[in-house]
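pls ignore typos typing on phone
S-adenosylmethionine + seq
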Amino acid sequence: MNKNQFKTNVSHGYWIQSERAEDFAGEVKLRKLSQIQRTIPLKDKQLVICEGDFFQSWWAQESFPCLQSFEFNSVKSASNQLKAISKYWLPVPVQLHRKQALIQSHLSKTPSKKLARGQAMPDLVSRSYWLSSETEIIYSEDCSLPYTAGLIQVETDAEAPSRAYAKLDESLARFRTTPTKEDTVIDLGSCPGGWSWALSQLAGQVISVDTAPLDIKMSHKKNIQFLKKDAFTLDPRLFPQVSWLVSDIICYPDKLFELIQKWRSYNTVKNFVCTLKFKGKTDFSAIQAFAKIPNSQIFHLNSNKHELTWVHSSSELDNSTQS
Ligand SMILES: C[S@@+](CC[C@H](N)C(=O)[O-])C[C@H]1O[C@@H](n2cnc3c(N)ncnc32)[C@H](O)[C@@H]1O
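k done
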């Protein structure tokens, strides 16, 4: 790696699953804010360096704004220089892993732990670094996630009827909003039941909707009401008690957008968590439509494949809206 490559304050890094590289390139083109300067291929990931304006990417697992660098001549001097900037650092596994581990061993452990169900990720400023050569460190001081390369850790749940609960747990951790016992959640496309299972531990009531039946394990859950129905035919006016809507339905994102707009038009649902699933070519116009809804965030979870997760809170008056 050429060590002068990143010596600019307008370079930004994006950590991408290799399978999503084309989607990320499409996003860069669409946003017209920056250009891809270089791509560093790793095992099943890519570190993509862009020049121009930083953007909060839909497709990156983690983003590293405003890359900076310094030279070092020993492990001790590298760790001392990092410590002089900040106490906590997350090591991004790009190359020279043994040397990076030695440097890391001189630094304090970041206080990010495995998250329990419904727990928000810690509100920490996170700083990441990697070795671009034997004698140079590249770092970013303003990363969005307090976990190495955005790998949020959620507790495993061996009892759940499907692994899909991990997607919901990670969404809630990133959303930093979670249903409470006062909430009624409608779970659209719920079978076999991983999300409804997790939600039944957080919310007061869960209305679980699918055209297929739930897993038998779900039958003893007292606060889950199952409706064997097509989610697209439901009339939101018949569910005035619903304060949260989550959806993992397999459908085209533009169809999901219409469904969400229908529910939003009655103003009763306060929070949404929905998976946007893509088949074949990614529908960027549908992503933009979701991103334009005020107080929305769109992210690619560790457990998302050719999918994105859209979260929205109608009660949140911050500037988290993406475009
Ligand atoms: C990926 S699975 C959902 C997994 C679920 N979130 C879990 O935690 O186990 C997608 C589900 O969407 C359901 N689905 C597809 N079209 C639907 C529709 N029109 N109405 C309701 N459910 C639908 C499928 O039957 C399927 O069970």
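The chain has two domains: 11-150, 165-313. The radius of gyration is 21 Å. more later
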